[in-house]
Amino acid sequence: MTETKKVSSGLTRYEQETVISCNAEEEMASVYTCDPVWLRKMNALVKKDPRIIVDEDAQPTHETCRTYIMPKKQVGVRATVLLSIEKRKKRTLQARLNMQKLQAKRKTQSV
To answer: What are the two backbone dihedrals, phi and then psi, of residue 23, each rounded to the nearest 5 degrees?
Structure first.
């Protein structure tokens, strides 16, 4: 078994879990997280969207963990697109050409 180091939150990377829970009947989902990245993202969402709230009644397993309640419609799962090396190179070239066109356009507008 590999050694696990405690980070500043006092939890190991393995213990910094995120659990999203919802069911078919209720309209709200629960997001429990101890991951500092998810905590920052969720706190930013709480400030932007009044429908997302921090569940103060939930008993965290650690002082750096929080539970958020949010509309289930805002929870999503998406798959990444797996590209072949050839397609990736083609898209990279197209993105470079688009950037060059944009820079040339900006240059002519500023003159």
So the answer is: -135, 170
